[in-house]
Amino acid sequence: MDAAACAEEFRRRLDAAADATESALDALLAPAPLPGEIARPARLLEAMRYSSLGGGKRLRPFLVIESARLFGVVGEAALRTACALEMIHCYSLVHDDLPAMDDDDLRRGRPTTHKAFDEATAILAGDGLLTYAFDVVADPKTHHDAGVRAALVLALARAAGLGGMVGGQALDLAAETAATPLTLEATLQMQAMKTGALLRFAVDAGGILGGASVSQARALTRYGEALGAAFQIADDILDAEGDSAALGKRAGKDAERGKATLVGLLGLDAARARRDSLVAEATAALRETGLGEATDILAEAARFVAARRN
Ligand code: GRG
C-alpha cells in the first residue's frame, strides 16, 4: 500500500473502530441488569455513560482490534476486549480530572464528569467503569477459552494497576511536590507506566487473542512500548507548543504544575527528534513480527500518534 492509501485506510479503520466501540459500550451500559446484578442505579449509570460515550479518539480500541486482526481474529472477542480497555481509560480520565488530582473542568470538549454530576458520583463512575472492564473480559462471551480470558485479565490488571497506570500516576503526583525534579530515566519510567502501559496492553491483547508466537508477542510488546512513549512525548510537545486547546487544558499547564515532561528535560527540538525515532522503532518492531504488509496499518497508527494535534 502506498503512503496516501495507507493513511486513508488507517482513518477508515480508526473511524470504524470508534463506531463499533461506541455501539458496543452503549449496549454494555444499558439500563437492564445483567444476570447476577441486583439493579443498575440510574444516576450512576448515567455518569458512567457520560464518561465513556460520545467522545475520544478511541485509539486504544483501534489498537486492540487491529492487532487482533493481524492473527485473523475479528468480531466480539476483540471488540469486547477493546471496550474493557476503553472503560479503564475513561475511568482514569474521570479520576484524573477530579479536584484532588488535576482539577480540570473540561474533558473531550465538555464538562468533566464531576462538573456535570458531582464529585462522589464521578468517583463511583470511575470505580464502576474499572470493575465493569474486568467483568467484560472475564465473561465467557469474550472468549470461549478460559485460559485466554485469564491471560487477558492478568495483563489488563498489571497494565492498569500498581505497576502500571495507577503506579505511574502516583509517581507523577509525587514528582509535583518533590524537592528535586525527576531525572530523564525516572520520567521515562513514570510515563511508560502512566500512559504507556494501557497502550502496550492494547497490542499485547491482540497477540493473546490471536495466539501469537513468543517472538511475535515480544515484537508487538516492543511496538506498544515505542508507540506509548511516542504518544506521551507528543502530549508533552502539544502542551509546550501551546496547541493544547483540544486537550482541554491551557498551554504549558503540565510544566507549570511541576509535572515531569520530556520537553522540560530535553528541550523541544530533542523531544521532537526522540518522538520521530520512537516511530521508527515502532515500525521496525512490527517488521519483526514477520506478518508483512498486514502491519502497515499499525505503522500508520504510530505516525498518527506522533503527529496528533489532540
Ligand atoms: C487517575 C488512576 C488515574 C490515572 C490517571 C492516564 C492518566 C492517569 C491520566 C490522564 C492524564 C492525561 C491527560 C495524560 C496525557 C495522555 C493521555 C492519557 C491523554 C488522553 O488520552 P487520549 O488522547 O484521549 O487517547 P481520548 O479523549 O482521545 O480518549
UniProtKB/TrEMBL annotation:
Alphabetic keyword roster: Isoprene biosynthesis, Magnesium, Metal-binding, Transferase
Pfam family, one: polyprenyl_synt
Superkingdom classification of source: Bacteria
Cofactor: Mg(2+)
GO-annotated biological processes: terpenoid biosynthetic process
UniProt GO MF annotations: metal ion binding; prenyltransferase activity
Gene Ontology CC: cytoplasm
Matches recorded under Gene3D superfamilies: Farnesyl Diphosphate Synthase (1.10.600.10)
Family: Belongs to the FPP/GGPP synthase family.
Protein name as it appears in the record: Probable farnesyl diphosphate synthase
Organism of this sequence: Methylocystis hirsuta
